[in-house]
Structures are given as structure tokens and as C-alpha cells.
Amino acid sequence: MLDTGGDHACCDRCAGAGTAVRIARRRLLKAAVFRTADVRPADARPADVRPADARAADARASSTAGARAGATQGAAGLLPDRARARFATSGELPRAVTGEIIDVSPHFLVVSNGASQQRFALTPDATAWRGGALEPAALRPGDQVVVRLHKKARGVADRIWANIGRVTGTIVERTRDGLLVDEGTTRKRQFVTIPPRASGRIQVRFPSLEPGYLIDVIGLRRGGALEGLIPATSQPAYRVDQMPAPALVSGHVPDAISGSATWHEPADEPPGVLGVAYPALDPEVGCAEGPGPGVPGNARMPYLSIGSVLLVRNDCTGSSCALPVTSCAAVGRLFNDRCVTCGTSPRSRVADLTQASFVALGGELERGCFNATITIGG
Amino acid sequence: MQLSVVVREVQVPLLASLLLGGSAAKLVHMLRVRSVDAALGPTALFPVYLRRPAAMLICGCEFALGVGLILTAGRICRGVPTNAVRLGTALLFLVATCALIELRGTRPDIGCGCFGDFSTAPVSGRALARSALLAVAALSTVGLPPLQPPHRGVAAILPLGILAAELALVAVLSPEIGEALVRLGYSEPCELRTVPAERTVAALHRSSQWRRHAGLVSAAEPVDMWRELCWRYVVYPGELHGRPVELVFAVFLRQHRPAIQAALVDAATGNVLPWPGSVRPATEADRMRRLIRAPAPAFSAPTDPGLGIPAVPGVRGAGVR
Prior knowledge:
A: alpha+beta, 3 domains, 5-stranded mixed beta barrel, B: alpha+beta, 2 domains
């Protein structure tokens, strides 16, 4: 087995409780400078553009996602209203729960998030995924799951993904056992195995499984490795060190940018945190999340920082919500792909969502992306 | 012909073209975003339900006055109508100047909207000066006799020279010129521009905002610094009447004399505090005393390499990788 330890270094920007406090603090300080900024009508309630069912669910929200996001919420709770006016809270995105299965039967599912247990009813419409579609009752205790709750009934599981994982990065080594993939300097290197049954499917979309090329696969977590089953996109034809220069921008970047929204596994961030990794953090922060010196990003996107707020809209479902930037999508910016979940999106990845955010916005984890439009504000 | 008369005559076509240009730019902006509500600038001072009519009124007034200046320039409508149009123009620019001063104080983050999409930079002294200059120019045309047909030959040099000089002055006072260069692709838009943090801090330290409030600052290095689009925020710890406070500066990422906004925040509660009446700038002795009492540690807070605040000036990212 290859060494996956790598030289990963988690800098100050990795999402965690400290980041949540920093996000809240920065919003407060920004609001202090531009005191009237938060009373703009366009800014006042960005979450109102969500479907009516999501808004109606706000009052009833009490999910694990909310508990995980509690770090953010808790910090914001101490702050004046103006500073938290635009945060996505557990009340706004209550539909995702993550944890470990404690018990499962044909009629209910019990999930533990470490601190508490939650019980969900399973209806005949509920579906599950563990490498492929299966009956929810076929899930096993010990499986790590992401549960999407029913739109109207919060105690009912709508969709369950078990042991799902994703590796997105640059192949650094290939052996007979599998591939060693670098996901950026702040994340641990990942080991990917490709079983024979999935090999053909993956190689159609990723013909060059060689060091220096990019890979993005979804599969099952088995110990410390990922069993790659589904290609999440098509492989760019270029090596990472031979990336084409980004297109020149004439004029200002538009307020709303469309592209592909993907998801990532939690590394150092709480599993249910609501947030987004953004591909163009201010290069002046000097953090080690970049893909390496001399490697430009593919899209030219406006520079932001941890704590900036993005209004992310799922163009396929119409759901949208304001989410804070919690980390840098260092590898995501190397891809110049499109999402074809509903129609064909413009090129480039505009947001790399946490699992909870992706699911709550109506994304299907095994599809890897949804067509999205982000609006910068907050 | 007297020089003063020529100068006054030049103002009429200049004002008319600026008014029509501003009106057209606003109209294009509204058509582009498909909303009258999206108008920029002083309309933000109005309640939400009044913004649409206010935007339409401003655009309509500019167009009407621009056309009016042209129609009344000659011998048609001499007398009261001519003076009414010119006085109206002067009044418009006077009100605009006052509105921009108010906008600068209450909404420092948005542009004047004078030329639609081109006027997105925060209202600066230049924009105020331009507006005031145009108000004076409009006022100078009141009582001017009908304009003469264009001169020919050598006689045309004087009015053309004055027009060119005034256009150059207006251009210097117009932040929209830089914006036009960005649009044409000759300059990188500010949200994509890489601006070193050191330059931002240096610009802040040269500003009047800093000189006014530096007496409250209790550390040499900022405790936090981050960027959003065209603004970089710099936070310094401070002390007011024995209470820990934080001074927040928002610096617009521009090469020269950037717009800077500041706020004073209670470090414990997060509440915005009023600036103290008169903060005496810290003397060198005061600063040295503070630094000796609380020296900036080399590799820990208040420096924060992870956030781009170098532990040692000039050494970016030290201790991170």
C-alpha cells in the first residue's frame, strides 16, 4: 500500500470551529464598516428565493446538519442581528443529516452523529445507495450515511447514501493496487482502487490514469481507501502542469456566475457543516491550499475570502440558499468541465459544496454535480 | 470675442453631451439588467418603493435638460425658457453634489451611478468635484446670449482649445475612464486584480483615516485581514477608555488614493462604537511605549500567516507550508 500520509498541512483556513467563529466575526466587522449594507432589499432575505416548502420547513428545522453547523450558528448567536442576517443556518437548510447507522429495519432508521441519535421513518418511496441502488433495509449498522430528509416531513428519510466517498485531484502515483491522488496540500493524499467491474466505465471517461493527470471518481469508502465506481466527470485532456491559460476577461465579472457545483468529503471540517469551498480565494492569504506554484486556475473568478457569502442556486431544482465560504476549492479550479445534470452548464466549477449543502440543495451525490449559478454578496 | 464669453459658450454643448451621455448610460444599464430598480447611485438613498420612480425621474430629467440645452442654445426660445433650462441644469448638478455627499456618508460601498455601469467605484472626492464643477459651469451659462455659429479658421482654435481643456479636466475627475479601460480589456477589473497586502496596508497608513484614528491602535500588526471583491478589510486591536476595541478599515483596491472606510467596534460585544470626539494622534513615544508593553510576536497572534498577515513584513506565507 502506498503512503497516503503525504506532506499535508492544515493551515489556518481549514474549516472547523475556529473558522465558524472567524466567519461570524468577519461578517460582523464588515457590517460595522458598511452599516447600511444589510438593509438593502435585495440583500435582506436571500433565502426567500428558495421553494416555498423549504421556507415552510424553516421553523421546524432541527437536524444533524444544523447541529453540525451549530458552531457557526453558535458564534453568530452572540452577535447583533445585522451581522448574521444573511447566514445559511440549520433552519434554512435542514434536509441533510450525516452519521453512522445504529439500527435499521424496513420501517425505520436510527442514525448517530456521536452526540445524539436520530430516528427516521422509512416509507416505501425511500431509496438508498451503496455502490448502487438498494433497499434501505439492506443497509447495515456501522455504515456511514448521508440522509436526505423528506421535503415536508422532517422525520422521514427520503434518500440515503451509505459509505459514499469522492476523490478529486491529481494522480501522483500508479501501482498495481491502485492510484495515489493528491487533493491539494491541505488534504491528505487519497488511495483509490478501481475494481474490474468499474474499470471499463471509469476508463471511458478517464483514459489517462497516469501521474500528472486529473481524476474525479465517486465510490465506496473502504477503510482508508476509496473503491472508485463512478466517474464524476470527464477527464481534462491536459496534464496539470500543462494547463491552458484562462480566458482573458473583458470588463467586470458578472454578479451571477453559472457553472458546475460539485461536492467534497469533509476532511477537517465537521461532517454536516453548511458551506462552500470557493475556487478563487485571495492569493495574498499565502495559504498552502493552492495546487502548486505556477499552476493557474482555469476560471477567472473574483477573489473572495473565508466568510464571504455566496448565494448558490441549483438550476436543476430551483432551490437556492446563501452559504458562507468555508474553504478553498484548490483542485476544483483545475477542472474546466461542464455539468450535464440538467442541460449543459457553462464551463468551470463555480462551487465545491460540502456534502450537507449539496444534498440540501437537491443534489444527488452519486451524480457528482448539478448545474448551478452563484451570486456573490453578503 | 471676450474670453469669458467663449468659456461660457463652450459649457452648453459640454453639459448637453454629458447629460445625454449619462441618461443613455443609465438607460442601457436598465435595459441590460431588465429592471428600473437596478439603477445605481443616489437612488439607494430612497425607500425601496421610491427607487423606481426616482431612477426614472433622474434619467428623464437628464435627457430633458440635455435636449433642452441644445434646443435653447440658438435663437429659438430665447429668454425665460433658455434660462429656465440652464438654471434647472445647475440645480440638478447642485442636488447631485449634495446627494453624492450624503451617499458617501451613508453608503460608501456603492458608486455614484452617474454613467450607469461605468460608475460603480465608490464615490470619491473626484466625483464630488466633477459634480460641483458642472453645477458652476451650468450656472455660468445663465443669461448667456444665443450661441454663435461655429467659428472657422484661426478663430475656432480658442473655443476648441477651451473645450479640449475642460474635457481633459472632466476626464481627470471621472473614475469612469478607468472603468471604460477595464471594459475595453486594457485593464484588469479590480475583483480579479492581485493586490499585495503590503500595498493595502501601506495605502492605509498613508490615509487621513489612519492618521485620525491611529491613536487608538494598540498593536503594530493587524489581527485580521481579508478581501472580498474590490475591498480589503484590515482589523487592528485598540483601546478606548481602558476598553478593548477593534478598528476595522475597508480599503478599496485601487492603485492611488484608495477610498477607505473605518469603524470602531467593541471587541467583547461586537457593537459599533462612536468615534471619540478627538483622538490625538499617537506620538512616537506613545507608540514605542505600547510596543514595548505589547510587542508583536513573531510567529503567533496578532500576526496570522494563514490569513496573509505576514509575521515578518515581506515574508509571505512563512511558517505555513
